[in-house]
Amino acid sequence: MVRAGGTSVAAAGPTLAVVAREAGVSVPTASKVVNGREDVAPETRRRVTEALERLGYVRRPRFDAAKAPALIDLVVHSLDSSWSGAVLHGVEEAAHEAGLEIVVSAGLTRTRTGGPERGWLDKLTARGSSGVLFNLAELTQAQYAWLDHHRIPYVLIDPVHEPPAGVVSVGAANWQGGVTATEHLLALGHERIAVIAGNRRRMCSGARVAGYRSALASAGLRHRAEYVRHAGFDEGTARHRMHELLDLPEPPTAVFVCSDRMALGAYAALAERGLRVPHDISVVGFDDLPEARWGTPALTTVRQPLSEMAATALRLLVRLMHGDRPEGTRTELSTRLVERASTAPPPARSALPG
């Protein structure tokens, strides 16, 4: 083990010549297998493949710091959401400025034992990616170790969990966003304010709920545990949580929903009860995705700068690829409230209809 710039790095893996010798073939034949050529006998391919696995060979081109890196990977949680679209937009613009090419993948799969899925990692190294951006990824310790062992630079965009020490990540000021959303509702005169948060395990969920609680405490209001509900960042579970809040003996007059997508689920539940937004109940979302403008009424929400977060992550990745580590490992971008038509002062009556 040697150290470079204060960071532990592993010694380089075996050469292709070592693999060829282990498999009992020539170096050109081993090279054909590594590069996916078809003109190799099945038995020969099997021997070479087993040697590659056994020796831990990784096809890794040398990175020339004097030249701009040519290719990076962007791994997103999924490709069917406006969230991912905003991230891709930010990465694409920043990559264009830096003269980079991007390969986009949906999800990072794992083996049954929780280790890195070999196929994806083989593709990463085979195409010679100079670095990786992970968006909303839940990396295992084995995957972190694999990336570090092969000295592949990477940056996390809005990591699901607290990353290990030394891992560079970019996110939003989620705690402050929770404070801002709650203070907006307090300023309108609401005191019975509930929150529908995302998954309990998500780092951003905890921060947004903590901000909500802090704002209530600063206003001298007692925190009510029954007003805190957790969903799964999807419309369906948020809809159920909104119904639960409406079934309380003293339902809230306002709700802070920790994503715009979940806010649409809350809208659906309120419509099913014959309640109007914001006349009967106010709703604040989080993200400021296009859906926030499409809702009826248009959603007041906390803007999370997704494209800017992605662009910042790309620039940090380029620095890492050039051997320049940032002073801090966590970068947070500011959030801000975008007022639309879903919030108003609380209704005059003391309780909402069921």
Secondary structure layout plus pairing:
Layout (H helix, E strand, L loop, with lengths): L1 E3 L2 E3 L6 H8 L3 H8 L7 H14 L15 E6 L5 H17 L2 E6 L11 H9 L5 E4 L5 H9 L4 E4 L11 E4 L1 H14 L5 E5 L5 H16 L9 E3 L4 H12 L7 E4 L2 H13 L9 E6 L2 H5 L5 E4 L2 H16 L8 E4 L2 E3 L16
Parallel strand pairs: 3-4, 3-5, 5-6, 6-7, 7-13, 8-9, 8-10, 10-11, 11-12
Antiparallel strand pairs: 1-2, 12-14
Radius of gyration using CA atoms only: 25 Å
The major sheet is characterized as: 6 strands, parallel
Measured between the Cα atoms of the first and last residue, the distance is 65 Å
Helix content: 25-40%
**Spatial arrangement of strands, main beta sheet:** 4-3-5-6-7-13
Determine the strand fraction and express it as a percent band.
15-25%
Helix tally?
A: 12
Structural class designation: alpha/beta
Count every beta strand, where a strand is a DSSP E run of 2 or more residues: 14
Low-confidence stretches: 1-12, 61-69, 350-354
Q: Give the integer mean of the pLDDT values.
A: 86
Shape estimate: elongated
Structure description:
The chain starts with a strand and ends in a 16-residue tail after the last strand. Strand 10 (254-257), helix 10 and strand 11 (282-287) form a beta-alpha-beta unit. Mean pLDDT is 86; it is low at 1-12, 61-69 and 350-354. 40% of the residues are buried. Strands 4-3-5-6-7-13 form a six-stranded parallel β-sheet, with helices on one face. Strands 9-8-10-11-12-14 form a six-stranded mixed β-sheet, sandwiched between helices. A two-stranded antiparallel sheet has the order 1-2. Helix content is 40%, strand content 17%. The longest helix is centred in the N-terminal third of the chain and has 17 residues, at 82-98. The chain is an alpha/beta fold and 354 residues long. The chain is elongated, with a radius of gyration of 25 Å. The chain has helices at residues 16-23, 27-34, 42-55, 82-98, 118-126, 141-149, 174-187, 203-218, 235-246, 260-272, 290-294, 306-321, and strands at 2-4, 7-9, 71-76, 101-106, 132-135, 154-157, 169-172, 193-197, 228-230, 254-257, 282-287, 300-303, 330-333, 336-338.
